[in-house]
Amino acid sequence: MEKSFNRSMRIAQELQKNISMIIQFSLKDPRIMTMITVSQVQVSKDLSHAQVFLSFFDKNKKMNIKEILIILNNSTGYIRKLLCKKMRLRIMPIIVFCYDDTLLKGNKISLLLKKN
């Protein structure tokens, strides 16, 4: 019988918590003018790669999503360095930031269902 709560899930949850704290408090990039939430982290089985899914809240829609992702993907070295100080892992995963558009898709489906 396989464990329902394996190590990769625990590490993914810990990474999600720590990355959101780093983006919120330690990343002081003046180009990012929007609120960023880490919605999910998927870690590979060998714990060497992590996909971090982000959603953005921007009232003014000034920042382009691609620009923010480029900025964050360029700062992964700094984020990994801060994660190494917070977490005790043998191998710190390589981080790739991705846009999470499930909220927009959910709203679109909800509007379609309300029309019918």
From TrEMBL:
Q: Which Gene Ontology molecular function entries are recorded, alphabetically?
A: ribosomal small subunit binding
Q: What keywords were assigned to this record?
A: Cytoplasm, Ribosome biogenesis
Q: Tell me which PROSITE patterns the record gives.
A: RBFA
The lineage's top-level taxon is Bacteria
Name this protein carries in UniProt: Ribosome-binding factor A
Subcellular localization:
Cytoplasm
Which is one Pfam family of this protein? RBFA
- Please describe what this protein does: One of several proteins that assist in the late maturation steps of the functional core of the 30S ribosomal subunit. Associates with free 30S ribosomal subunits (but not with 30S subunits that are part of 70S ribosomes or polysomes). Required for efficient processing of 16S rRNA. May interact with the 5'-terminal helix region of 16S rRNA.
Cite a GO CC annotation: cytosol
Flavoprotein found in the keyword field: no
The answer to whether the entry has keyword Cytoplasm is yes
* The organism of origin for this protein: Buchnera aphidicola (Macrosiphoniella sanborni)
What InterPro entries does the record tag this protein with? KH_dom-like_a/b (IPR015946), RbfA (IPR000238), RbfA_dom_sf (IPR023799), Ribosome-bd_factorA_CS (IPR020053)
Per the record, the similarity remark reads: Belongs to the RbfA family.
GO terms, biological process: maturation of SSU-rRNA
